[in-house]
Amino acid sequence: LKTDHLDLWQLHNVQRDEQLEQIFGKDGAIEALIKARDQKMVRFLGITGHFDPAVLVKGIARFDFDTILMALNAADTHRLSFQQELLPLANKKKMGIIGMKIPARDRLFKPGSVTTMKDAMSYVRTLPVTTVIIGCKTVEQLEENVAIAKAFTPLPAAEMARIQGLAASNVAEGTWFKKPVSPTAVAEDDQNME
Fold this sequence. Notes:
Largest sheet: 6 strands, mixed
Radius of gyration: 17 Å
Distance between the termini: 22 Å
Structural class: alpha/beta
Strand content: 5-15%
Order of helices and strands: EEHHEHEHHEHEHHH
């Protein structure tokens, strides 16, 4: 459980079916969240994840969460796509949709792939999302992100396809936080704050 503030409590980084069974099982986290909402301790309930979209699809099918925080970037459609599997369902359920992992901790950026924050952020903001979260390491990055957000206009389909095509050359790095391709591979810990 992650508390963003008193208005929204989220089940954070839900990765596996076993976690869903604990959340929705007897005395599970969902019971505590519903109780907190009923007692007016919190207004909205959410779920987050960036490991496996199929798990989140199951989670939002089992409960009417208000929000979802999901991984979305230009490399997403090339492997375990949140954009193709989860985003349409979340929109159908009229959830608040928060995009994260926009530049994949800058790993999406490389020559021959996506190289600018403007492309990375504009791509995700053009999707049917409510907002995006982008980590910043410097004040300059923050200022650049604010400028990009202020000047944003949705991209035409051809520009979306161009950016997505660029990201195809960097899928492993652009989706490093997702479930590993091989069941024997070890997932990288993306919770460290470096």
